[in-house]
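Usage

Read records sequentially. Each one opens with the input sequence:
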Amino acid sequence: MGFIELKCNNCGANIELDLENLQAYCPYCGQKLMLEVSSLDQVLKEREKTKQAMVKVLQAKEKTKQKNIEREQLNDRDRNQNRTFIIGMVILFLLFAFAFGMLYIPDVISSIQHEKNGDLKIPISAKTIIDGKYNYLDVKTIFEDEGFTDIELIAIPDIIMGVFKKEDIVTEITVNGDPEFSKGTWVSPYAVIRITYHTKKRGG
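and closes with the structure output:
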């Protein structure tokens, strides 16, 4: 709210005139002030300036308010995005953990049950033994080290010159009759291991 200073025509006192109210009374003598045209023009100009200043202040406040709203909206959006990302990562982790558990837990339970029963794991696959041309004694040692005891060695005396076949090389191996067993398969500790290998043909 603005004021201009006037002088009372009756008592000469200085008076501040409220620009919102163009009628004024002297607070000292009670004289009603009659504004001159020049004074009225000044009042109107001052009041217009005051209104314009108030408008600018209100506009500035409104801009500040709008900026604060926009900033808060951006913050809310960032918080929502972060919250969504975290929730998504948690869900993904839980799904991964569930899938991993579904695949791994049955194997763990199975292993515990086999160990409880005293079963043994086959330490090497048949394919590895045959392709690697293992010596039968080495294969026998591998299975004995794992705990197998029922190991049968079968010699095939079919080597004459030793050109196409090498002596003591495993030609076939079975576990409980299975010639295609895999590494890590659980079997009874009493499983029958049959190792067939080449040896030199003895003369008659």
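Summary fields computed downstream for this record:
- The radius of gyration is 52 Å.
- The mean pLDDT is 83.
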